[in-house]
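One-letter codes give the sequence; each number marks local geometry. A record appears below:


***
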Amino acid sequence: MKYLEFKMNKFGKILTDRADGKKAYLDITRNETFPNLLDFTGVMSMGSSFGDEILPRLAEKHSNKILIKSANMAIRSCVKKVIEDTQIEVEFV
């Protein structure tokens, strides 16, 4: 299976608030094709507000599933919180 990857470090090393998450989502989805793999290489942390704006909305475009690459423990913890609050499926690769 071929993955369409998006590098999240484009938005910085610390991804925090909801407004930034909304801007990031618009940037990520500005094309007709939507990534199904988010690469967190170089990102130190992510807030759940930022994650809430991106993860469920991208997963919705891929049968409710998103893949995450190179997530450290802080990011994984945030992702797990987003998963609890939504019903998306996330796979760490």
Notes: The mean pLDDT is 93.
